[in-house]
Design a protein that fits this description.
The complex is a heterotrimer of chains A (222), B (420) and C (263). Chain A is built from six helices and no strands. With 222 residues, chain A is mainly α. Chain B is built from 17 helices and three strands. The chains are: A mainly alpha (222), B mainly alpha (420), C alpha/beta (263).
Chain lengths: 222, 420, 263
């Protein structure tokens, strides 16, 4: 890619991307650690995740400021403009993903005895897929790769499928063992959060596609 | 970044720097002094010229005059308005013996010796006074009549000792004195410096200048306009430009030869006429007007032309409504320079014969005439000492004429100056 | 090289159209086979780096290149279907129908009134003095200058500020009732406030005259025009709606120029 004649412009864009990558990385780790805490019952880890969310929030604020500054000072056009707008929106979405991970961590503190639940094995698998989606979409953003973005959108189906099956499982379990309703409810929230993460990753994928090509990806039946 | 800051903090006014600085200021001072010296020298030379001319020339505006009272009632001359009109009047008075009358009264009041020194054509001045006012014949009048140049020389302390003594005597008696001679500006050339005047040459110069201006200005401006605005830029126009530039540097006497060869062949009987002189000088002035005209037109910014063209003006409208008004000050300046040069030219007019002795002012463009610089040249050649002062006076008149012409042109130029 | 024209541009009436126009200065080709339609109801902007030929092409539209001896134009340029170079169209009349405003304001060194009145006078547009006065007032009003100068129409045109002078030049162009107004970087010599006033003026004139503006400020092109053409090395690289050109250009060169990656 040819560089901008004014090098400082390139530096600003690079910094913007760096912030997004950093945010994305932190959100990925937050999701992993939250799932770990959930599965292992590690409340210390859960606390760490909750605290760590503040960092993600701070980064979103920085991205906001930087994006506004770039628009005011550099008057970006064409793909530069789309990239900056996409960065603004992506930051908001990644911050949301972080919040969901935080919620998962919080929920994990509420669940007591882990051994009771078999669906606990499904959740990490679902989270893995969602986590991969997040990872991939951040890669696609950095590479301005619309094809990868479209793949991520397609992957959301799997996450939805996971959610449906976990939902049935947990509800069945709760009906059978009413004592586990509190914990079960928490698990439902966790599953919901992961499914939302998948949806948000899809939103990010659409914005990455727009930034790269100027068009939103063709509408597939959801 | 810090390296730059460090070098900025290093002292710039080192001794080497100070020494160089001093040298630079010294060079500036020397240049200014040289400039002032140049100007001073020029002013000195100019002042010297003017003062010398003025001192010499003042005397030229005066002449030695003898006081002669004439009582016409005793003269027995007759005449009135009708009989004394025109040249017939002069003839009639001569026939009636006016010269003898004047001589008689001069002898009476001045003595025989002095009367002999009364200017030859002194009686004509009396005649002119009578023609102007025939009622004079019925009474007495006192006339200031020109003395001969010998007596005038005697009054100035030159010539034979007898003349000087006589002059001194008459001066003591108050009968001979130097008066301001307004007639100098009204009379024409004469053999006697006391009778000589500048008006003939002045009128000749004016007529010649008019012809020169009427020919050179329109043709020069049109040529400049065409060359700048319309002519294509090719080898031919380059050659024309080169030729015009060279023509401006050609010695003026060559134009005289041209005038002799061409104009006098066509109009052989118009030798010495202001028409021919004007045409010759016009040839000489044309290149100057064309060159300065072209420069003035070139100086008009293309944005004005573009603006006019873009509004749909035709090329002629662009030239006459926009370019010419803006170029006019520059064109007028060039014209002034050209005309001033033409006014002072002698050589080319020599060739076409304007060095004749012309005793009366030219009546129109086709009569024989002479011009101021030519008159100056002719007088400076004369042997009679009286002409020395007249020459300086003529030079002053020429300078004044030049001044008036330049003043008029500058006034016109300022009037047409537009701000853009 | 074929111009990339954005698809789905609706059919509009073309006031002027150029087909395969090439402009030569001697042997040097400054414009290489450009074809474009100038619509009546839009402002069309020409953008491109220095020396790309946008001003040269603009000047070909009202035959101002004729003033340069070595200039030669090939191809066809039509105004309302009439070829402006080959047909019997009179160049003086052409320039009354296609007016031009220049980069540096160039009012005549006459009074404000005479500046505006000159065009109508030489074309014989006004039938009486009252007519002429009306034309002067209308033109100055349309140019947004009337209120500022109505009390001093006798003052010299050159005594106005830069922005006012440029509006005077626009009023002068309007006075001959043109159909097209060509503007060659009209704001590059002006400060931002004067520039904004001129841009507002262009918005006002939009629709009444077909306007073509050459500008080296992309932001300006983006603000005032509805169609944009990008020129590069004498060729017209891309043409389309202004919004599309600036948010989603199709050509790499256009994109590089717009985003500041050119050079």
């Amino acid at each position: 890619m040819v560089e901008h004649t004014v090098k400082a412009f390139d530096e600003d864009i690079t910094r913007l991307r760096g912030l997004i990558s950093e945010m994305g990385g932190l959100a990925e780790v937050a999701l992993q650690e939250a799932m770990d805490a959930l599965v292992k019952g590690d409340n210390e880890l859960a606390d760490k995740v909750v605290k760590g969310d503040k960092k993600i929030d701070a980064l979103e604020s920085e991205v906001d400021k930087l994006a506004v500054r770039v628009i005011a000072l550099r008057a970006p056009m064409a793909d530069d403009l789309r990239e900056v707008i996409a960065a603004l929106k992506i930051a908001g979405v990644v911050e949301r993903i972080g919040d969901y991970s935080k919620n998962i961590a919080k929920a994990s503190r509420e669940i007591g005895d882990r051994k009771q639940f078999e669906p606990l094995t499904l959740l990490p698998a679902m989270a893995d897929v969602a986590g991969e989606m997040v990872h991939d979409i951040l890669t696609a953003y950095a590479a301005r790769d619309p094809a990868l973005a479209r793949e991520v959108i397609a992957t959301d189906e799997k996450v939805d499928a996971f959610y449906n099956s976990i939902f049935r499982n947990v509800v069945t379990h709760m009906v059978e063992n009413p004592a586990t309703i509190t914990a079960g409810a928490q698990l439902l929230f966790v599953a919901r959060n992961i499914e939302r993460i998948g949806d948000h990753a899809t939103n990010v994928a659409e914005m990455v596609h727009f930034a790269a090509t100027g068009n939103y990806p063709p509408d597939d039946d959801e | 970044m810090s390296e730059q800051a460090a070098s900025l903090r290093a002292p710039t006014r080192t001794p080497a720097f100070e020494a160089r600085l001093k040298k630079r200021y010294a060079a500036e001072r020397r240049f200014r002094i040289a400039g002032i010296a140049a100007i001073g020298f020029s002013i000195f030379v100019l002042a010297f010229l003017l003062v010398t001319m003025a001192l010499n020339g003042i005397g030229g505006f005066q002449r030695a005059e003898l006081t002669v009272p004439i009582d016409f009632t005793e003269a027995g001359l007759a005449g009135d308005r009708t009989s004394l009109a025109g040249t017939a009047g002069m003839q009639s008075l001569e026939n009636q013996g006016l010269p003898e009358v004047v001589a008689f009264f001069a002898e009476q009041s001045l003595g025989e010796e002095a009367a002999a020194e009364l200017g030859e054509s002194a009686w004509r001045e009396v005649a002119e006074a009578i023609i102007a006012d025939p009622a004079l014949l019925q009474r007495e009048a006192v006339f200031e009549l020109p003395a001969t140049s010998d007596l005038a020389g005697g009054l100035s302390g030159e010539g034979s000792p007898e003349m000087q003594a006589l002059a001194a005597q008459l001066a003591e008696r108050g009968q001979l004195e130097k008066n301001f001679d307004i007639g100098f500006l009204q009379r024409s050339d004469a053999t006697d410096p006391q009778q000589a005047g500048i008006w003939g040459a002045l009128k000749g110069s004016m007529l010649t200048m008019i012809v020169t201006l009427l020919l050179a200005f329109p043709i020069g401006v049109m040529a400049a306009l065409y060359l700048e605005e319309y002519a294509p830029k090719n080898r031919w126009t380059d050659i024309i430009e080169l030729s015009i530039n060279n023509l401006a540097a050609v010695p003026s006497i060559i134009f005289g030869l041209l005038g002799l060869a061409v104009f006098l062949t066509i109009f052989p009987n118009l030798r010495s006429a202001p028409l021919i002189g004007g045409m010759t000088l016009a040839l000489m002035t044309l290149p100057v007007i064309v060159i300065s005209g072209r420069n003035a037109i070139k100086a008009v910014p293309p944005s004005i032309r573009d603006g006019a063209l873009a509004i749909g003006a035709s090329p002629i409208q662009v030239v006459f409504h926009h370019v010419l008004p803006l170029a006019l000050p520059g064109i007028l300046t060039g014209t002034i320079i050209g005309m001033a040069r033409a006014l002072g030219e002698t050589a080319p007019l020599l060739m076409i014969g304007m060095r004749v002795f012309v005793a009366s002012p030219p009546e129109d463009f086709t009569s024989a005439a002479t011009v101021l610089p030519m008159q100056i040249f002719l007088w400076s050649d004369e042997i009679d000492r009286g002409f020395v002062e007249r020459t300086s006076a003529a030079i002053i008149v020429l300078l004044l004429f030049l001044l008036v012409m330049n003043g008029l042109a500058i006034y016109l130029r300022n009037k047409f100056e537009k701000k853009w | 090289m074929v111009t990339v024209v954005h698809p789905n541009l609706e059919d509009t009436e073309a006031k002027m159209s150029a087909r395969d126009v090439s402009v030569f200065y001697g042997d040097k080709k400054a414009i290489d086979e450009v074809s474009i339609d100038i619509p009546t109801e839009y402002v069309t902007a020409f953008i491109g780096p220095s020396g790309c030929g946008k001003s040269t092409f603009l000047r070909a539209l009202n035959r101002m290149n004729d003033t340069i001896p070595s200039a030669r134009v090939e191809g066809t340029i039509e105004l309302d279907g009439e070829d402006i170079y080959r047909s019997k169209m009179d160049v003086v009349q052409l320039r009354a129908r296609v007016g031009m405003v220049f980069q540096k304001p160039n009012p005549f060194p006459k009074s404000i009134y005479d500046n505006i009145a000159y065009g109508p006078k030489i074309h014989g547009i006004a039938e009486s003095k009252a007519d002429l006065e009306e034309i002067v007032e209308t033109s100055l009003r349309r140019a947004g200058l009337w209120d500022e100068v109505k009390d001093r129409l006798g003052d010299s045109g050159t005594a106005l500020s830069g922005g006012q002078q440029q509006r005077l030049c626009i009023a002068r162009a309007i006075a001959v009732d043109p159909e097209v107004i060509l503007m060659d970087e009209p704001c590059s010599a002006l400060d931002p406030i004067a520039t904004a006033k001129i841009e507002e003026l262009i918005d006002d004139l939009n629709g009444r005259y077909a306007i073509v503006i050459v500008t080296h400020s992309m932001q300006q092109a983006a603000r005032v025009s509805q169609r944009t053409a990008f020129f590069h090395l004498g060729k017209m690289v891309e043409y389309g709606r202004t919004t599309d050109i600036f948010t989603n250009p199709l050509e790499e060169r256009t994109k590089d120029y717009i985003t500041g990656r050119y050079g």
